[in-house]
Amino acid sequence: KVREGGAKRFASGKKNVNLDIEQNVREIRALLTTNREILERCSESVCDRIRYRYGYGNSSTRTRTFKRAAYNEVYVGGDGCGSVDICTEEVETQKDFELTALQELPKSIGGLFVEKKMSGPNAMDAIDYGALFETSLMLDDEVLEPFLAKLKDHLMNVQVCLGRIDEWVMQPHEISRFLEETFQVKLADLSHNYRYGKKLLKTYNDGGTYSKTFCMSDENSRKKLKKFLLFISDEE
User: Least CB-packed of 32, 64, 111, 194 within 10 Å?
Assistant: First the structure.
């Protein structure tokens, strides 16, 4: 029945679609490997709750909340008494991401097989695309060719979905590297400043009065911080 149903749905694919089975198999295996690696990284930051966003009619978009802890801002404080403190603070933030591509097949290839879900903690109700791919190889070549082409396109969409999450989740690591290189410190070893209650990155001998905040997720703000550090270094 699966073969018969597949033949009716996929035998008349577009002529300009890449239908080379061997090439698509290689590319799909590579996509599956990359997507699984990204999914495993992202799963460590998933929150427990699930949200549904409702649109027109009965449509709904399933989202999941992710969390990260980052040194999002650098604070400069100087009261004119001879020293200027540069501090930062690790703050946890959360953000919702749409997971439709991860959890649902497009109508063009959905319903042909029973869709198994991935197991394990924080699997995010994701389809086991590896199992789906291996099962699809039972199809006749005339059906398999267009099916694999459409599956590959969808897996690329899955990678885009996961890539957005991964970029956001991993950004704190890049911020930490920037701060450690800029101030020549190890953030994990820093103590909290007694006046500001934040981690003290550096103190400058300067009699000026300052109250500034720099956003570390913004490249322009980082450049401004570096310019300020050059300025205050020259003033010492």
Answer: 194
